[in-house]
Amino acid sequence: MPNNRKIDPAKTTSQQASRPVEKVESDYSSLQERQREMQVFFSFLQVDNQNFSPEQAFKSLNHYIRTYRRILYSTVSNIVYDITDDDDSGMQGSNPDRFGTLLSNIEKLVEYTDCDANIAAHKTAATTNEEKRAIDETRKAVWKIWDHVNLAHRQYNVLRQSDAEFKRRFNEQIRDSQESMTKEMNAQLLTIVGIFTALAFVLFGGISSLQSIFEGLQETHLLKLLILGCGWGLGMLNVVFVFLFCIGKMTKLNFKSTMSPDATFWQRYPVVCWTDFLLCALLIILSWLYYCTNRNGGGWLDWLIKLNPMLVTIIGCVLIVALVIVGLVVLYKATKAKVGDEDE
To answer: CA angle, 253 as apex, 238 and 278 as ends, to 5°?
Structure first.
């Protein structure tokens, strides 16, 4: 960034006249010197219009060209940005339009350099061909500086973003994200509430229902209690599953094990399927054992059990276990997702 300290054109004119012309050194101190000399030139352009001297400004720029040859356009841009920023922020001081003053003085300098008589007078005062050539280069540099000052001012106006403009654009960009985030938060909140509601239903409702089951623990057969417990587990499990399934539909969330569109129900919800299967298998086994120990009918199965209770019971258990194993194999194949269908 350029140094914004005030530079007195009257003092710098004598300093420039007394300073010998020397080749630029490629180091940081030389860069700082270039920037300072460019600020000296612009200090002539920033005086009031009635006090502006095109001749003094031309001499200052000519001295810069003879010394450094190349104009630092980045420094010119920074100076223009600082002046325009002061105008926009109300920090102009005694001059309400510093850029307008600067541009007006540059245009006067352009008119001065367009006059062949003025250029001829400077060439007459020159003592060497190099100085005369520098005057022509200075004449071209004036037009380049005028063009770059207008370009820098245009860039500042186009790229400038006030607080109000930034706030407006920020609100436009964040509006869609806010709506999406709000919907997502509401969905997640509803999901959390639903899960805790389901858990509360299982805990408190289940405890209440189990209380009635175990009230007659001493008078009720153990197998009957286990059968009732399995039935209660099946009911609670599927109620919670249906409850969570409905919550997923409302919140557009799901708890599937695979996202494949070709997946079956067994592949999408294997946990529920396996739990239901195990409870049903246990319920069937317990029911058979309870029947064998508490038969009171007159059918052919009771007649077989009376002939050989142990053998019939074992055979029945073996058949039930075989059916359970077959069911396990079938369910395993049904719930096994294809390669690539798993949800990563």
So the answer is: 25
> Which of 95, 127, 160 lies at the terminal end of a domain, its last residue?
160
**pTM of the shown model:** 0.42
Give per-residue pLDDT as tens, 14-41.
554 445 444 444 455 577 888 888 888 8
Judge contact between 278 and 332, C-beta under 8 A.
no
CA distance linking residue 94 with residue 22, whole number of Å:
38
CA distances (Å), 12 to each of 6, 7, 290, in order?
11, 8, 114
Query: Are 136 and 223 in a shared domain?
Result: no
Q: State the angle between helix axes of 28-45 and 98-114 in degrees (0 to 180), rounded to the nearest 10.
A: 90
Per-state percent for the chain, helix, strand, coil, to nearest 5: 80, 0, 20
Query: Which residue range forms the structural domain that includes residue 115?
Result: 9-160
Number of H helices, E strands in the chain: 14, 0
- pLDDT tens digits, residue range 273-282? 888 888 888 8
The answer on 109 and 16 residing in a single domain is yes
Backbone angles phi, psi at 187, to 5 degrees: -65, -45
Q: What is the DSSP string of 207-230?
A: HHHHHHHGGGTTTS-HHHHHHHHH
Contact by Cβ (8 Å): 14, 87: no
**Angle subtended by helix axes 129-159 and 116-125, to nearest 10:** 130
> Domain tally for the chain?
3
Radius of gyration (Cα) for the chain, nearest Å? 47
* Residues above pLDDT 90, as percent of the chain: 0
Distance linking the first and last C-alpha atoms of the chain: 52
- The contacts of residue 73 (CB under 8 Å, 6+ apart) are 148
Note the pLDDT of residue 90: 57
